Amino acid sequence: MQRRTLNLKTGQAVLQEIEKLQKIGYQKVGNWNLSQTCDHLYKTMRVGLDGSVKPFPWILRATIGNLLLAYVLRKERMFAGAKTLKCLLPEAQTSGTDEDDNDLQIIQNLSETIQEAIERTEQLPPYPWTTNITLDKWKQLMWIHASHHLSFLLPNESNDTPVS
């Protein structure tokens, strides 16, 4: 099976997609289940909201980081198979445990963080991967990121279009 096309434009749409996957179930076509995906999205969003990861060197953020950001925002998609920082991996992946695929606390953590992001109006702390990200661009990036990862979870009895 292939992953599906998913282009969620708002935090509310991300929340609705997660709720749908919880309610009707899904088939996993990637490496992570729903809880692992939510844990990764939660950790990634916290980085932007809290500034909790040490920024990459300025020259990398100002060149490669800014180019990648512009590409992702223009194409509204992310690269499949890209590596992430160990601190952003789901707990189950780093601990070697087999996490429940519907862990309500992990999903609740992400839901609360998405709501915080939706309501946020003040600028973010310095972002660790780029130098020119506004709050609106960051939110757009987070919804694209969520779409990317959730596209590997195919809703049961889905008519969503697979992508290659």
Report on this model:
- The chain contains six helices and two strands, in the order H-E-H-H-H-H-H-E.
- It has one domain (11-155).
- With 164 residues, it is mainly alpha-helical.
- Strands 1-2 form a two-stranded antiparallel ribbon.
- Mean pLDDT is 91; it is low at 94-98.
- The chain has helices at residues 11-24, 34-50, 58-75, 91-95, 104-119, 135-150, and strands spanning 26-28, 153-155.
Compute the number of structural domains: 1
Given the helix and strand composition, which structural class is it? Answer: mainly alpha
- The run of helices and strands is HEHHHHHE
Q: Number of helical runs? A: 6
Largest sheet: 2 strands, antiparallel
Low-pLDDT regions: 94-98
